[in-house]
Amino acid sequence: MSPSRSGFLLVDKPAGPTSHDVVQAARRALKERRIGHTGTLDPAATGLLLLCIGKATRLQQYLLAWEKTYHGEIRLGWGTTTYDAEGEPLAAARPVPELSESVIAELAARFSGEIEQLPPPYSAKKTGGRKFYELARAGEEVPLQPKRVTVQSMALTIGQPDRIGFAVTCSSGTYLRSLAHDIGETLGCGGHLASLRRVRIGPWLVEDAVSAETLANRPDDVPAGAFISLASAILPFPEVTLNPTAMDHFVHGQEVAVREADGNYVPGSPVAVRDRSGDLVGVGVTLAFLPRARTVNVAPRMVLADVEAPAET
Q1: pLDDT tens, residue by residue, 140-188
Q2: Which of 5, 139, 140, 237 has the smallest CB count inside 10 Å?
Q3: DSSP letter at 17?
Q4: Chain Cα centroid distance, residue 148
Q5: Choosing from 12, 42, 84, 275, which is the catalytic residue?
Q6: What's the number of domains the chain is made of?
């Protein structure tokens, strides 16, 4: 893989390193300091990290909104201070109720859709410039505030008598550790996250990713399928396609009116802007949308490159 390329890289993180460790290794291997990621995985978790490289870091904030899919396992019988296997037990082990298909179905229904959850006391969430885990380790009170998240789908399976497997697709910002903890409390026996693997971010799958080990030690062996060019990036909101004249206006900071627009355009919301070849040229903001006229007015928010629009033909 060329160190100078801007774009996105799919990386399969192993258990152990932090997400930041993977980013640091990528910076060294690719000789590029401008690298970030689009969603943290806990050190014990494995799976897909989407790295933004070079100019692609300008899109990092937008890619955070993609929904994500996880596979994992909940161990029942006791909760922990961290809501995962790394923490200390919150109390003595409690008996696990018999799990049946009806119980599992009821749990899946209860924790699907829009739900409210508290973040784990040990998390990277910040308050007053300090991370929750820093407060927790210092024995200080962690100001947990509930947040609403969306679980688009949840499939639960019965494993061993004290284990529940899961496949969950959820909105960005969902805490799977909190989900495991809350399921254990609902069953009355406590529970914690035993394992977690992220298998999808938006349209990207972990099976297309390069291993973190290969990236760190043999960057030239990164498979082509693990790299997404900047121009072909898919963003989690509607798109418009500009003709050459409109694109020239857009890249020079002017509002454009796009006709024959198809999408759910909401005033004030972002919109991906592409040229006629399908390449992503920037991000705009919807000013107005006239559904009957199929016309959307878009103002530039970010232009990815200095683009000189070709002459109209």
Answers
A1: 666 668 899 999 999 999 988 999 999 999 999 999 999 999 999 999 9
A2: 139
A3: S
A4: 16
A5: 42
A6: 3
Provide the residue type at 305 as one letter.
A
Percent of residues in the chain assigned helix, strand, coil, to nearest 5: 25, 35, 40
- Whether residues 102 and 175 fall in one domain: yes
Q: Any catalytic annotation for residue 42?
A: yes
Residue 274 lies in a domain: yes
Q: Residues 153-165: pLDDT tens digits?
A: 999 999 889 999 9
CA distance 42 to 50: 14
DSSP labels for 284-305? EEEEEEETTTTEEEEEEEEESS
Lowest mean pLDDT among 14-23, 125-134, 155-164: 125-134
Query: Residue 286 belongs to what domain range?
Result: 239-303
Tell how far CA 250 is from the center of its chain: 29
Reported pTM: 0.90
